[in-house]
């Protein structure tokens, strides 16, 4: 499985931004796609994830109510829509793939495949 993330950039506080992650290869029909982020000198943080079959979602506490996640099965694309961005959202964002199709884990170690990362910078 390969993941290609895109959509990062430089925005101002309060703006919105959309990140996309396209999966290719043998994905099967039951898996989880998640987004994590890592700021300089900080631990990798769970942001959001979605189960591909049922569309169940989960969000990190710091983004709950501001971010949404969705999937397009035909395009094998997961989209992270970010609203009301804050400077503390600045990080490299990674999409990740887990074979655990029915359970969303917030543990990065549960995700077997990772995209290359895309930088999101929010200025104040």
Q: Summarize this, please?
A:
It is built from no helices and eleven strands. The protein has strands spanning 2-6, 9-12, 17-24, 32-38, 45-51, 57-59, 67-72, 77-82, 91-98, 113-114, 118-123.
Your description of this structure?
The protein has strands at residues 2-6, 9-12, 17-24, 32-38, 45-51, 57-59, 67-72, 77-82, 91-98, 113-114, 118-123. It is mainly β. Strands 2, 4, 5, 6, 9, 10 and 11 form a seven-stranded mixed beta sheet that branches. Strands 1-3-8-7 form a four-stranded antiparallel beta sheet, with no helix packed on it. Helix content is 0%, strand content 50%.
Secondary-structure topology with pairs:
Elements: E1 2-6, E2 9-12, E3 17-24, E4 32-38, E5 45-51, E6 57-59, E7 67-72, E8 77-82, E9 91-98, E10 113-114, E11 118-123
Parallel strand pairs: 2-11
Antiparallel strand pairs: 1-3, 3-8, 4-5, 4-9, 5-6, 7-8, 9-10, 9-11
